[in-house]
Design brief:
The complex is a heterodimer. By secondary structure, chain A is of the alpha/beta class. Helix content of chain A is 34%, strand content 26%. Chains A and B meet through helix 11, helix 12 and strand 18 of A and helix 1, helix 8, helix 9 and helix 10 of B.
Chain lengths: 504, 316
């Protein structure tokens, strides 16, 4: 580990020096240094809450630091708003998509840079718009109907479009924030090829990811943050995986496998018979017993989220029957499902799982205020007690229960979502990518929580795209492909290759 | 409730209302210097009574805005409720019963709004725009465009009575506002309102019944409008189809100045109260300084924009 040498570079394209940023009750960045060389792929690593997103927000003008300086191409710059960053050639591709859902593919790609007929009239040149859009898409090997609204496309396509847009802008610095989280392995390979090609052409890329294998595959240098503090920067060929993990977590390397002591399963909790949903899934049948964890594995877009939403009453079923605890049930709406004991950890916590403008107290207690009510009024101290209980049980890092959840890190936010459902005492818990966008340490905690939950008799349906996760957590794995179940696998027997091939 | 306030202070969350409260204090100082008639008990009583109606209507509007919606029909609901109350009294129905009829009517009108918005799923702007017109038209039809005069003292006391220097109307207004504060902070419906305003989809997926909550919210707003009708009708000793025109703008302005976000999810009843009193103080002071009515409107418009602007900066 040759830290000092790797950090001292002669002509950095970007220097962020002594950046400090605090939010009420939380220090997000503490005197952080970040230096990037021109034409390199630089990986920014750290646990959720370590400060990576905040650092990038500062760089992109989404927020301003309390102190510190930014130097671009050896000249100090001020980035007070996003357009400043864009004008300086800094392009950000967020993890959670920033496309306009109702606009078409071509309109989204060239948003803000539409080719016009003439300077005076700003009439959009539709034909040129379309041909440019097709050109850009072909550079990432995407073949789509460019007139369809972006919201009809699967998440992975949307992500590729966002990346293509950033590439088109010919930015000096492109920031990719967890670009692989919604991509299949083939798409990831494609992405890395494009990144390497760009690097050859002199493009500078900052790459944020939780997947350490990816770092070793494409990154030249690595910067690690932990708890808002800069831990060091290294050449990627001079540091080991274990060293990275210990710097990120402050602990020795953790084995990512929860303790799997087998336990008795209870009676059947959930059964689907020939359930079909509107868009993708057809004739899905499976059952889950109390205390069992059934993993649904497949590529993105295989129809698993749809099934969960149908079980939860968030979307309508086209046909089929659902049995809860042995009885045929018609689930009319989410509140109906909740009353019947079903909980749902959604894939997208920011838009569906949490109310970001409300505090921990409300997010944990929403839907179960009855527990804290007396004479028709909510008792604040009871609410607080409940929230404190879950905060301690799930190790949520926030002293302030009244902080808006908007300000918490991804891992803590996800824990609050889980706390909410634990508070509901759901007997059947549906989980859609529960550890997406969460750091190694928090993931480990989550895995243990999931196993503990199943031991206590909760039936769990786990949708995940991470192979190691589904094998490590499930009692049975159902493999999905293009809307149908293609097979059932025993995680103790099957190999990763076998499962993977079933999905393709 | 006190506990929460101090806990928030401890956690370094300065209440937003302190900003406009300060602005109000500065306004008082300014007017006191500029006019000898301003800083008198009689004048303050005037300000309080003038703010009373706005406080009541704006409190209801605040709840609606907190849910991410808007209610343009509050003025019309006020008008029709007042007319029904007056007609009841004129028809020799005892005052308390007439008042009850008016309040029920207001609540019912609000519930219909809530039904259109929560069940039929019409956008709040369109739904309440429609009810604004329909209810106003009904008011004209029922009264044949003629005002109803001459109401007994037992009724008028609500508008004209005093406890020392403080008008009954103001006490009633603060009572209503505090009740709504209780609803928002300590009832399930209140929490659900903020949740829906913050993220309707997440609220739905957490088990909140959207339509039930929305009907409750708009019914509450309707009730507030009818309480305001009581004060106005009692004070003017008349009910007419013109009453309450433009009230919706005042109400929304007070709520926004008080810190409510039109996007929903954030609202403050204390802020709304201060906002309403601030606007009434502004109008009062400008009148005492003999500023012409149109310039008053201009000033108020500027104050509203300034308040929202400052709020946006504070949020960054």
């Amino acid at each position: 580990m040759n830290e000092t040498a790797a950090c001292q570079i002669t002509t950095p394209i970007l220097e962020m020096n002594s950046i400090t940023k605090t939010y009420p009750g939380v220090v997000a960045l503490d005197d952080v240094t970040f230096r990037v060389k021109k034409g390199e792929i630089h990986a920014l690593l750290g646990a959720n809450g370590a400060g990576k997103s905040t650092l990038m927000k500062v760089l992109c003008g989404v927020t301003t630091p309390d102190s510190g300086e930014i130097i671009l191409n050896e000249e100090p710059v001020t980035i007070a708003k996003p357009s400043d960053a864009i004008h300086l050639g800094i392009s950000y591709v967020p993890q959670e998509l920033s496309l306009v859902p109702t606009m078409s593919v071509s309109q989204n790609i060239l948003l803000g840079q539409e080719p016009l007929y003439g300077k005076l009239f700003s009439l959009v040149n539709e034909r040129k718009l379309d041909s440019l859009a097709r050109q850009i898409l072909s550079s990432v090997n995407l073949d789509l109907d460019i007139h369809q609204p972006v919201k009809t496309l699967p998440v992975s396509d949307q992500q590729m479009i966002a990346i293509a847009t950033a590439l088109y802008r010919q930015s000096k610095i492109i920031i990719l924030d967890e670009p692989t989280s919604s991509l299949s392995s083939q798409e990831i390979t494609k992405l890395f090829e494009i990144m390497k090609k760009l690097r050859q052409e002199g493009q500078t890329i900052i790459f944020i990811t939780h997947h350490l294998e990816e770092v070793f595959e494409v990154a030249d240098r690595i910067t690690i943050l932990r708890d808002a503090v800069f831990q060091g920067c290294f050449n990627s060929d001079e540091i080991s995986r274990d060293q990275i993990v210990s710097l990120m977590t402050g602990k020795k390397n953790q084995v990512i496998k929860p303790d799997l002591d087998p336990h008795q399963f209870g009676p059947e909790a959930l059964r689907l018979e020939n359930v079909s949903t509107k868009l993708i899934s057809k004739n899905i049948s499976f059952n889950v017993r109390a205390g069992e964890v059934v993993g649904l594995f497949g590529q993105v877009g295989a129809g698993r989220t749809e099934i969960l939403r149908a079980i939860f009453g968030a979307d309508k079923m086209e046909s089929g029957d659902i049995y809860l605890f042995g009885e045929k049930t018609h689930i009319k709406s989410p509140s109906d499902a909740i009353q019947k004991g079903v909980g749902f950890i959604t894939e997208d916590r920011k838009h569906q799982g949490l109310i970001l403008s409300m505090d921990l107290l409300d997010n944990i207690n929403i839907g179960v205020y009855e527990k804290s009510m007396r004479f028709g009024l909510i008792q604040m101290n009871r609410l607080e007690k409940i929230a404190e209980h879950f905060r301690d049980a799930l190790k949520i890092k926030s002293k302030n229960l009244y902080l808006w959840t908007k300000f918490l890190s991804g891992g803590n936010q996800q824990k609050i979502v889980l706390a909410k459902w634990l508070n509901h005492e759901s007997k059947i818990l549906l989980m859609d990518e529960p550890t997406k966008g969460i750091d190694v340490g928090a993931k480990q905690e989550f895995y243990q929580l999931i196993r503990d939950l199943s031991k206590s008799g909760v039936a769990i349906v786990l949708v995940t795209s991470e192979l190691a996760e589904v094998i490590g957590l499930s009692d049975r794995i159902l493999v999905f492909r293009k809307g149908s179940i293609v097979g059932e696998v025993n995680p103790k027997e099957a190999t990763e290759e076998k499962i993977m091939s079933m999905t393709l | 409730m006190n506990n929460t306030f101090f806990k928030k202070l401890k956690n370094k969350q300065i209440p937003a209302e302190s900003g406009i409260f300060l602005a109000w204090v500065l306004l008082i100082l300014a007017f006191s210097i500029l006019s000898p008639y301003f800083f008198t008990t009689q004048n303050f009583s005037n300000v309080l009574i003038q703010s009373a109606i706005t406080i009541v209507v704006a409190s209801g509007a605040t709840i609606v805005i907190a849910s991410g919606g808007i209610d343009l029909s509050v003025g019309s609901v006020l008008c029709l409720s007042g007319i029904l109350m007056a007609m009841g009294i004129k028809a020799d129905i005892p005052a308390w019963a007439s008042i009850l009829i008016g309040l029920s009517a207001g609540t019912l009108m609000g519930a219909v709004n809530g039904f259109l918005i929560g069940v039929v799923k019409i956008t709040p702007l369109i739904a309440t725009l429609a009810s604004l017109s329909v209810i106003r038209a009904l008011a004209y039809i029922i009264t044949d465009a003629r005002p109803i005069y001459g109401l007994p003292m037992s009724f008028r006391i609500f508008g004209t009575g005093y406890i020392g220097p403080i008008p009954y109307a103001f006490v009633l207004a603060i009572f209503v506002a505090l009740m709504l504060l209780l609803v928002i902070k300590r009832t399930r419906t209140g929490r659900y309102t903020l949740a829906i305003g913050g993220n309707e989809e997440a609220a739905r997926l957490s088990g909140v019944s959207l339509w039930k909550t929305k009907i409750a919210i708009y019914a509450l707003a309707g009730l507030c409008s009818s309480v305001a009708a009581l004060i106005l009708t009692a004070r003017l000793n008349a009910a007419e189809a013109l009453a309450g025109s433009g009230m919706e703008m005042e109400a929304i302005a007070a709520a926004v100045i008080g810190g409510a976000s039109l996007a929903g999810g954030v609202a403050s009843i204390p802020g709304t109260i201060i906002g309403a009193i601030l606007m009434a103080t502004l109008k009062n002071g400008l009148t005492l300084l003999s500023v012409q009515p149109y310039f008053q409107q201009l000033t108020i418009g500027i104050v509203i924009v300034a308040a929202v602007f400052i709020d946006k900066i504070r949020r960054r």
